[in-house]
Task: structure prediction
Amino acid sequence: MSGFKFKHILGLRGLSRQEISFILDTAESMKEILDRPIKKVPPLRGRTIVTLFFEPSTRTKLSFELAAKRLSADTVGISKAMSSVVKGETLIDTARNIEAMRPDIIVMRHSMSGAPHLISRYVDSAVINAGDGINEHPSQALLDMLTVREHFGTLEGLKLAIIGDIKHSRVAHSNIIGFNTMGAEVVVCGPGTMLPPDIEAMGARVARRVEDAIDGADVIMALRIQKERQGAPLFPSEREYAQKFGINARILEKAKDTAIIMHPGPINRGVELSPDIADSGRSVILEQVTNGVAVRMALFTLIFAEVS
Amino acid sequence: MSRNPDILLKGGRIIDPAQGLDMEQADLLIRDGAIQGIERGITPPEGAEEVDASGLWIVPGLIDMHVHLREPGQEYKETIASGTRAAAAGGFTAVASMPNTTPPNDSADTTRFILERAASEGSCLVYPVAAITKGQEGQSLTEFGDLLDAGAVAFSDDGLPVSDAGMMRLAMEYSLNFDALIISHAEELSLTAQGSMNEGRVSTRLGLRGIPAVAEEIAIFRELKLAELTGARLHIAHVSTKGAVELIRQAKERGIRVTAETAPHYFSLTEEAVEGYNTFAKMNPPLRTEEDRQAMIDALADGTLDAIATDHAPHSVLEKECEFEIAANGIIGLETSLALGLELVRQGRLTPAQLIRLMSTAPAGILGVPGGTLKPGSPAHVTLIDPDSRFEVTRDLFQSKSHNSPFLGRMLRGRAEMTIVGGRIVFRR
Result:
């Protein structure tokens, strides 16, 4: 009954509708464990999961580590600042040295696109991409899809509007792929300087104004401006950004009453999301976080089922 | 010093675009380092080495006018010895070496060093290209006169563009005193800043920052206008886009003194080769779209592009086995160029004579160096080609110190059987 044939989770590109559904179904079944007083089940006992984070992370790192622990796996985390990378050790050497200690899964976040793909060629362990450069963040998109599916019962035929720095957002990238695969329509909007070339070829429609993007949208996803990835400033000021592209109550008057608000975090309050919206009843931001642990538990479970 | 023995090449297909010659089952006699004659049934002089050239092409020695030999300073990637060995194995009797060495070739001393090295250890002729600006920093001109006297054949800051238009104008104006050639690496750096592959649907798909075609086209347009203004001789290096070819075509129609080259990878591969974050498909300018690739082939056929030059860029494992964004730009090309060019002949896009013109006669003419012809009396720079020889591209195959080639593992067809420089056999398979 396995709908899942992957050793590595490097991205959503190449995953079929059935495969994504299977992951979401598995994640759903994990959620119940997270509500128990004793949040632990034994399937991954004796397994080792190493998290290797070259960029800062609150949610993703903690989420992967908790997911591992809930399944009784041993987990160890390495962050760039505290590792020998600061002494000039290359990524490949770092991966091979970790591999020499025989982990089962390496969860990696890196600032460069293709980094997890690179190390997957040098290690025997399974590799999960926790975010690579401006390429993909598959577990984030999966938890986003799970959250939306919970709310609307399906993803098919829904309209997702992603507002923000599309060009530098791996979350946007993975969500465009994922939601498209599941039969949803995706429209993106952001300053022209933050739109990737030929995004239409990836299945997203481009809207120049936020009002047009959110018109008829079921899901409005706001993204943080990825200043750390942009190089030279791509917009004149945060004030202008907030005024023209920020999601606030006034703009939301043009959206459907049933539309939900999402954000992968961390939020720059008052920039891409006004505080009242971030905390409103329409926001599912914290549900996303809860679902994140379930999705990651599902990914670990499915990888081990496949690899064993 | 004993002279080289006479060589009689027998029964080959002699193709010399310079003489409009394409003659089957012909013989070519080499004496005293020069071409003695071309005929059917030449009687071998006493003591001559006779080479059976049946089934082979006999052509003027191939010349690669854009090669990075890495010496001085980066000998771990390539040396003049290993690079010219690779060239000879690829059928090249001469290469023009680019100046972005360490130190850069911006002084007569460095030029003389390169020439001395080539003379003592090289397997083919080396024509040094000297830097346009001191240190390739784009701030002040090098001593064109002194460098030409030392043996430089042209000027380029290749590796880098000359970013300041005013500086390029000065270089072009100064070149007029020497009728020197300016070779431009045309790139608008402010548009390419963080890119690592062609900008477009594939870069978006792979999540990589892109290098737009206009960055090359804007820079080429600038060079063409400056060449028109000054009357200088300009050569555009490594052309890769359809838009660039169109600009060059128009410029030639207007009588601007421009020539241009493309590399085999631009007419053989596209941006899709980057899939999987393949650093052996990373170079600058980057691999472009299929439309661009076809435009390169059309331009080679219609003469808009004058030469094929490999931009042979050896890099070690250190610089290529790493994250895509930080991998060095460039691939080797000397030992696969001929096979890739022959592929265009097999596909009917080029005639054999056109290919040899692109790989020999034209580079010789552009650089103003001997060769590119089999006319009797010319120096005996000759290549024997087996156009059908099939081979697998493996690391062991390469004479080059580096193995950064996207063609590893592929079967290619057509290669040099023998390379002769000034009557001396420098390579024989």
In short: The radius of gyration of chain B is 21 Å. Chain B has 13 helices and 18 strands. Chain B touches chain A at residues 193-194, 199-201, 203-210, 212, 276-277, 321-326 (CB under 8 Å). Residues 81 and 121 of chain B are 5 Å apart (CA to CA).
